[in-house]
Specification:
By secondary structure, the chain is of the alpha+beta class. The longest helix is centred in the last third of the chain and has 38 residues, at about 660-695.
């Protein structure tokens, strides 16, 4: 369709341009050429298109800017002014082509969604395993889903357990374990070993097929956005027609009426708006934001309601190691090393995250386990260096321990409340520690939400498939206005449909489960870097680099673009009104009016091109290069083991013997002195002054500098407490040490998070 439309506009534009070129050659050379016929004929394609569009608008009880262009060309031909008709036809065609080019007009087919849909299934038959087309699956068939394959249809689990990545349907990053008899939904991904299932639906009736249908219906139900030019036409057209009629009535000269219509031809509308929009779209593209057309940009400008999917959008969408909770007699790094050694043999999502965390902390040459056994959805076991190592869920590991420590059970209860997951690690029947895994908030999320509020978003809502308490833990922390939890794709769609009556909505999502809501929103925004292809196809905006702050930039760019477009339109129409008055009293003939209109158009287009420049609020000079910011973030990553040691020691200090207490405290003090404090001093003396000069104000980094002072103070206090610790220490003295450790840990965690956000925003 897009190719056919571009071909049509090419014909519309080339025809009058060739005729005008022939007219110019005839005037310069004096050759005898039927230029009048050529000029008149070249305007006919534009007349037919404008006639068709005007008829459609009238049938829909709407009048657009095309009506004046149609009357001008028709009037020029009727009054034997073919040159005027050709000039207007060229202007009309160029406006249409620019509008089409700016909008993109790309049909959002379901190719991305359908590409993810399963095409075949592994059916277990009497003569063995057969690969059959999905359409051949019948209710009651026994199917085998191999590791990494998508569940083809809805069904019941036959094996003992299965671990499924359901993020495409629910948005939940953490794989979900299912037991025998559980209902499995199509579109989910097998994240562990192969399992058998019984089909309970056909492909056409499956969950995944239903989502495809939801997207299609939502796309068709979305009301089209009115063109900005058409809204201005509601008052401009009657004014132009009235003035033309009055000029004809008073002068009895139809050419005066034609001259008025020619200079009233709303080229500032049909040219300035698409040029400004194209410039704004180009600006967004340069920042990694794909905006699919001018209508989408206009909707961004008018949007006031923002909806976010939680997992993969506000959060990273992937499990990540956030803390290590070791038993008393083992170092946190050793717990991670042993878990990573076993996990390197598994393709489980959590196992991959544990292994990556170990690699990030410099673990190399991990030993290879023997006699590895994996229980899908539960855990792993194997022999490592002559010891039996077990890791997995609380229930899986507890069944193989002599006794589960009380602190570990308490920890599991806390993580359940917080919505985090835990990997328990045991050796030879004794618990070594617990790895805390969580889907963390994106680094730029708080700043992005603040920018969006400043750019005119008045209500921010979070949509999540998580439990209410888990969703609230994230939502309240970042200051969203409304939290909707426990939602399925159809529930998210319903929320967007209900909000449509309150204003223009923006929906941000990243998975197949978000596709229906993205299609129903005024503007759908997809996380394109790691999001599902279906979400990108259903959205009007795609964040190619998965940065939420770029969405805020896009909204600000939309505001600037539309302001420039309105400014260009009003300036152009104001000049056109002056020209209309001159034409009405006879000072401006039709051809001269058409040329003058072209000059107005040039001025308007030059003004519209200002939208290529960034929003003034985004012009701040950045004191940090991307490499410098990454280096600072890398230094924070290197200090992460120190934070883990600090947290573990604060919790386990009372359980240690006095000699162990002194050893661990001395090791921590050395890490603080040799690693942490030099890092903080470097930032205070070199990084902060550079940023303060650019940020402006009397002392823009006062809060962060105050955090440095508190870190230095607590570190010095801890060192003095360690140096003066008596032998043996009393319970009160240990309690005071714990208080200092916990205080330092809290300050450092908050300080690092603030700095990471600042470094990213300033780079």
């Amino acid at each position: 369709m897009k190719k056919n439309q571009n071909l049509l506009y090419a014909v519309l534009l080339s025809s009058p341009l060739l005729a005008l070129l022939a007219w110019a050659l005839q005037r310069m050379s004096g050759l005898s050429m039927p230029v009048d016929v050529m000029l008149a004929a070249s305007a006919m394609p534009a007349v037919l298109l404008l006639l068709l569009d005007s008829w459609r608008a009238i049938r829909q009880r709407d009048v657009g800017v095309d009506l004046l262009a149609l009357l001008s060309i028709a009037g020029s031909l009727a009054l034997d002014q073919p040159l005027t008709a050709a000039i207007i036809a060229a202007m009309t065609a160029s406006g249409r082509w620019l509008d089409s080019y700016a909008a993109g007009r790309a049909e959002r087919e379901m190719s991305g969604l359908l590409a993810r849909a399963p095409r075949h299934a592994n059916r277990v038959e009497a003569n063995g395993l057969q690969r059959v087309a999905l359409e051949e699956v019948r209710v009651g068939d026994r199917l085998l889903v191999k590791a990494g394959e998508t569940v083809p249809v809805d069904g019941r689990l036959l094996d003992d357990a299965a671990l499924l990545d359901e993020s495409a349907l629910t948005g939940e990053a953490k794989p979900v374990a299912h037991q025998t008899g559980a209902l499995l939904r199509s579109g989910t991904l097998n994240a562990a070993a192969a399992f058998s299932m019984t089909a309970t639906t056909t492909a056409a009736q499956s969950t995944f097929s239903g989502i495809v249908k939801l997207v299609s219906e939502a796309s068709q139900a979305r009301a089209p956005l009115t063109r900005m030019a058409d809204r201005y036409a509601l008052w401009f057209i009657p004014l132009a027609l009235g003035l033309a009629g009055l000029a004809w009535l008073l002068s009895q000269d139809p050419l005066r009426a034609l001259a008025v219509l020619v200079v009233a031809t709303p080229c500032p509308l049909v040219l300035a708006v698409p040029v400004a929009m194209l410039s704004g779209i180009s600006r967004c593209a340069s920042r990694g934001v794909l905006v699919k057309g001018g209508a989408v940009l206009e909707a961004l400008d008018r949007a006031t309601l923002l909806f976010f999917d939680k997992t993969g959008t506000l959060t990273g969408g992937k499990a990540k190691l956030v803390a290590i909770h070791p038993a008393v007699a083992i170092a946190p790094a050793e717990v991670l090393r042993l878990a990573a050694a076993l996990d390197q043999m598994s393709c489980n999502v959590i196992a991959t995250a544990v292994l990556q965390a170990a690699l990030d902390q410099g673990e190399t040459g991990l030993p290879m386990p023997q006699q590895l056994e994996e229980t899908p959805g539960a855990g792993l076991s194997g022999m490592l260096d002559g010891h039996r190592l077990v890791l997995g869920s609380h229930a899986f590991v507890a069944g193989q321990l002599k006794a589960m420590p009380a602190w570990a059970t308490t920890l599991q209860a806390r993580l359940d409340i917080e919505g985090a997951s835990a990997v328990f690690v045991a050796r030879d029947g004794e618990l070594l520690g617990v790895l805390e895994m969580s889907d963390q908030l994106r680094l730029e999320t708080p700043r992005a939400l603040r920018m969006l509020r400043r750019s005119g978003i008045r209500q921010i809502s979070m949509l999540s498939g998580d439990r209410q308490d888990v969703a609230e833990a994230i939502g309240h922390g970042i200051g969203v206005d409304r939290i909707y939890a426990g939602l399925q794709p159809q529930d998210k769609l319903r929320q967007l449909q209900q909000a449509a009556s309150l204003g223009v909505t923006i929906m941000v999502g990243d998975g197949v489960n978000d596709a229906p809501a993205l299609s129903a929103a005024g503007v759908g925004v997809a996380m394109g870097g790691q999001g599902a292809a279906a979400a990108a196809e259903s959205a009007g905006v795609v964040l190619l680099n998965d940065r939420l702050d770029r969405l805020a930039e896009a909204v600000m760019t939309a505001h600037r673009t539309m302001a420039i477009a309105r400014q260009s339109v009003m300036a152009g129409m104001g000049l056109s009104l002056l020209a209309m008055l001159a034409a009405a009293i006879g000072y401006l003939p039709p051809v001269a009016g058409a040329v003058l209109q072209e000059l107005i158009d040039v001025a308007v287009i030059l003004n519209a091109l200002r939208a290529l420049a960034p929003h003034p609020a985004l012009l701040q000079t950045r004191p940090l290069t991307t490499d410098a910011a990454q280096q600072l973030n890398d230094e924070h990553a290197k200090l992460h083991p120190l934070l883990q040691q600090l947290s573990a020691l604060a919790r386990g200090l009372p359980q240690l013997q006095h000699a162990q207490q002194l050893e661990e405290l001395a090791r921590l003090d050395a890490m603080l002195t040799q690693q942490l404090l030099p890092h903080e001093k470097m930032e205070e003396q070199h990084v902060y002054p550079a940023m303060a000069q650019v940020l402006g104000g009397e002392d823009p980094l006062a809060a962060l500098s105050r955090s440095h002072q508190e870190i230095f103070k607590l570190s010095r206090k801890l060192a003095m407490q360690i140096a003066t610790l008596p032998r043996p220490a009393s319970q009160l003295e240990i309690l005071e040490l714990q208080r200092t450790l916990y205080s330092l840990d809290t300050v450092l965690q908050l300080h690092f998070a603030q700095e990471d956000e600042l470094y990213q925003s300033m780079s």
